[in-house]
């Protein structure tokens, strides 16, 4: 299959490499052309602009935010230039508003559209073991399923409306952020009252919260492993903001989410925006900053 890929950050470059290694033709574009060098050396073609991917059968997008996603897919002229047989697969974490906008825009252009945000960090992406949350027309999903299999260990189909995949992704990232914030505070409670937080970690990750999010991020918090960032704190703040926006559009209330957003804001103000998002735990231990 002739595949295009927009966005070669730590996640996108790994995903694109797995698509290439699966035997597909690959053309890539990234705002900073240098990030395409390794893929070019492996056999990928490098486009000068997003619109140059209009000859591809399927175009993946893994971009940082709403602005970049809208600009590359719609603003660049790519969507208008794609033939009706083409499919766009958006893997980025975007707002529910943009998800609806892209779904409508692709329908109006007669282009297939699948939302397929992913769960996993860069090392998981490199291993091709992501969990893919996918939604869209079933027949369109079937056409791109081999490509989703190349980047992930499982595809979770959550509905026929692409927006549903983005709702699931925003909810999942909000749960991760909440877990990180809660662990940081729980460990601070333990340490402040004379209990080794490692003992609390061992207890909860082997009983109540025996799950990868608690095991992996809990260890990072205790070991203060915030660099290099698997997922930057400032991007975590963006995702909490997406949850706040989604709650508003769905007439839900997020008292916990609002408090979490304030914690992220304080961490960014303290200069921690480029650290791993588990570094919000530092906000629970002010003495550690002295």
Structural key phrases:
Rossmann fold; globular; 6-stranded parallel β-sheet; single chain; 290 residues
Beta content comes to 5-15%
CATH names the topology of the largest domain as: Rossmann fold
Major β-sheet, in short?
6 strands, parallel
CATH classification, class level of the largest domain: Alpha Beta
Mean pLDDT: 96
Second CATH tier, the architecture of the largest domain: 3-Layer(aba) Sandwich
Based on secondary structure, the structural category is alpha/beta
- Please, what is the CATH homologous superfamily of the largest domain? NAD(P)-binding Rossmann-like Domain
Helix percentage: 40-55%
Give unreliable regions as ranges.
Answer: none
Order of helices and strands: EHEHEEHHEHEEHEHEHHHHH
Architecture overview:
By secondary structure, this protein is of the alpha/beta class. The protein has two domains: 2-160, Rossmann fold; 167-289, N-(1-d-carboxylethyl)-l-norvaline Dehydrogenase, domain 2, CATH 1.10.1040.10. Helix content is 51%, strand content 14%. The protein has helices at residues 10-21, 37-41, 66-75, 78-81, 96-109, 122-126, 138-151, 163-192, 197-205, 212-223, 233-249, 255-269; strands at 2-6, 25-29, 45-46, 58-61, 87-90, 112-115, 118-119, 130-135, 152-159. Strands 3-2-1-4-5-6 form a six-stranded parallel β-sheet, sandwiched between helices. A three-stranded mixed β-sheet has the order 7-8-9. Helix 8 crosses helix 9 (197-205). 43% of the residues are buried. The model has no long low-confidence stretch (mean pLDDT 96).
